[in-house]
Amino acid sequence: MSDDETELPATALPDSGPGANVTVPTPDGSTPEPPPPRDPYVAFSPVPAETITAPRVSSTSGRSPWSSRLTLLLVAALVGGLAGHFAAPSSSNAGVTINAVSATSPGAVLPSGLTIPTLVQKVLPSVVSIDVKGQGTEDQGTGMIISANGLVVTNNHVIAASIGGGSITVTRSGSTQSLPATLIGTNPMNDVALIRINGASGLPAVTFGNSNKLVVGDTVVAIGNALGLAAGTPTVTQGIVSALGRTVTAGSGTSTETLSNMIQTDAAINPGNSGGPLLNARGDVIGMNTAVAGTLPDGENAQNIGFAIPVATIQSLLKSLLAGESVVTHGAFIGVEIMSNNPTIAQQYGFTTDLGAVVISVIPHTGAAAAGVRQGDIIVGLNSTTINNAQDLSSVLSGLYPGNRVTLHIVRGTRHLTVTVTLGTAPAGK
Hints:
By secondary structure, the protein is mostly beta strands. The protein has a domain at 332-425: Pdz3 Domain. The protein has six helices and 23 strands. The chain has helices spanning 116-123, 156-159, 311-322, 343-349, 367-371, 390-398; strands spanning 5-7, 53-55, 69-73, 127-134, 137-145, 151-154, 167-172, 178-187, 192-197, 219-224, 235-251, 256-265, 277-279, 285-292, 306-310, 332-333, 336-340, 357-362, 378-382, 385-386, 405-412, 415-422, 424-425. Strands 10-11-12-15-14-13 form a six-stranded antiparallel β-barrel. Strands 4-5-6-9-8-7 form a six-stranded antiparallel barrel. 45% of the residues are buried. The model is unreliable at 1-27, 33-71 and 73-105 (pLDDT under 50).
């Protein structure tokens, strides 16, 4: 770790288990039923010290322009009810006038010209709450309808408890009826799964946008079954794209997974949001909400740091998920962390191409490091395949094996280089 870097941990969206619920007595002294278990991917706990490095905000010299590696931890969330009131402080200024907002206000207007209520009305019929029972646990999350015959995409960790004999039910937004669903395919390495609502037809599907054209500052809206408060009544939050190309590692005590090229957002994401849509200002899905940062080693809470899987990654996996594949990777590992290039990024950093996968870090003692790949290199080809974005590179690698020798075509400044890399085996969590 360099002198201008500091460690910063994080977290991911949570599951049920011991300590997952907090019981709060009601005013009459009785004890209510505990809240239902939550989706397994948001937690607020310390993580191992080596997990992330990020430039100190007080340092401006020698700071890397690339995203830092962030590690998330899968643990149970604590959820409880709390009632109270807020009393406004008294004021000595008797001349203050408070004007009420009209009840007919159309709501916040997005850059697209749509209001948030209009956007929500457009998308909400295609969002479902998911409840999973199995192996003595119950998990909740969110899903997106992607076809009229009931195909729903969600996070793998949302439905993981159903594997081996569990059950999956979904509740459409605006409904109280639970519908049985069947698991079609899973991809634990990329944390994506596909289920189908049994016997469904004529359902409205979400519209996919282009996540490769996102820029930092774009307005986004997140929808999801936050805290599992009531199936069929998703929560809506608004924010912006805070960063692109993040690499985050999420795990429990027994397993971990590393997700690359993630979208970072400050839109509020909570337990239960996993698998829900992150929308652009037009209401198109540009990501799937998956994880959220948690508590730092010194006890400070991270604020407004959530992560979503780009929709381009999801689209690249749908064919294999429909075929019922469970893991579409053989563990081949180049040794780089990447993000998709685009015209905005190319202009910001002076790149001579606006396509390819930008290398944001090179992991020591890997094939890429041995071959001389550098931070800031742009991978535009692997063997005979053109690489237009980070998803292209990941897709090609999924069909290769550790030990394979590959030719990388790289743009470095104004030069076009060719290097040979021997693929290694992805370490735990890669």
